[in-house]
Amino acid sequence: MQAQPLRGAQELLCINAEKVYDWVILQSSDSTTITPGASGLTGIGLPAGFNPCASGIEDLAVSCILTDASGNPVALSSPDAVTFEEIGTRTSQQFVVDGALVTLQDVSWIKSVYVVLEFTGVSGVTPFIITSDPILFEIPESAFLCAPEGTDLLIRLTDFSCRTRVNCTGTTLTSLDIFINVCQSVQTFANVTIELEAEFCQPRDIINEQCPNPVIPPQCPVIFPANGPVMG
Asked: Are 174 and 130 spatial neighbours (Cβ–Cβ below 8 Å)?
């Protein structure tokens, strides 16, 4: 006899999912100073003749663009906005939280973020837009997380800001400072199979709809998921 699904009622389901073991929001900052060589700021891909301190340049503005390693702009939520590598070995340490003894793991990683600088302004009477090569920021970080053996690390950016400062002595460029501030979502997770009671979703009706609703494959709730051993 074939068991029939429970139409219009809840069923006991087994699904694969990612279980989050810990989740924190961390803030970090970094800075770098770029000094010009004999050819100006060519070290970050700017034209050899470009001098942001030149007397003929007006309305100079420098903005930061979050990019991937190739210099392509990326959205803040994009997986390409940040890359990371876990380093070292996770070590456990006990803490007392709200009167309870909790064992957490010390997790360390290096986070990589790429930024492209965009220079805009007017040279004489000619507006210009000049962009740099991607500039890499590598930020070492660590945190105590619930991260037992078998869990993975996931990092996503939640906020990004950047400030720049062009340092001039007269019409001579002496250095360029870049300051970044990053907020990130840090999670530890593992793939698990969970059991829950749920109802199958159906799409809502649309006026003059010609397509039938998708058919849910028949289930076998008598044998799986089962509350106990099946006797032969």
From this structure: no
Q: Report which residue type is found at 26.
A: L
For residue 19, CA distances in Å to 13, 106, 145, 150 come to: 16, 20, 14, 12
Q: Is the peptide bond before 47 cis (omega within 30 degrees of 0)?
A: no
Q: What is the pLDDT of residues 213-227, one digit of tens each?
A: 667 777 767 666 766
DSSP 73: B
Count of other CB atoms within 10 angstroms of residue 216: 12
For the sheet with 11-34, list strands across it.
Answer: 11-34, 172-198, 152-169
To the nearest 10°, report the CA torsion of 86, 144, 104, 152: -30
**Segment 96-145, tens digit of pLDDT:** 988 899 999 999 999 999 999 999 999 988 999 999 999 999 999 999 99
Q: Catalogue the E-assigned strands of the chain.
A: 11-34, 57-67, 83-97, 100-123, 126-131, 135-145, 152-169, 172-198
- Residue given tokens 């456990």 in the structure block: 92
- The answer to whether the CB of 66 falls within 8 A of the CB of 73 is yes
CB of 145 within 8 A of CB of 136?
no
| Range 22-38 burial, b when 16+ CB lie within 10 A, else e | beeeeeeeeeeebebee
Q: Enter the pTM of the model.
A: 0.78
51, 55, 56, 62 alpha-carbon torsion, rounded to 10°:
50
CA distance 95 to 200: 42
Token couple for 94:
């006990």
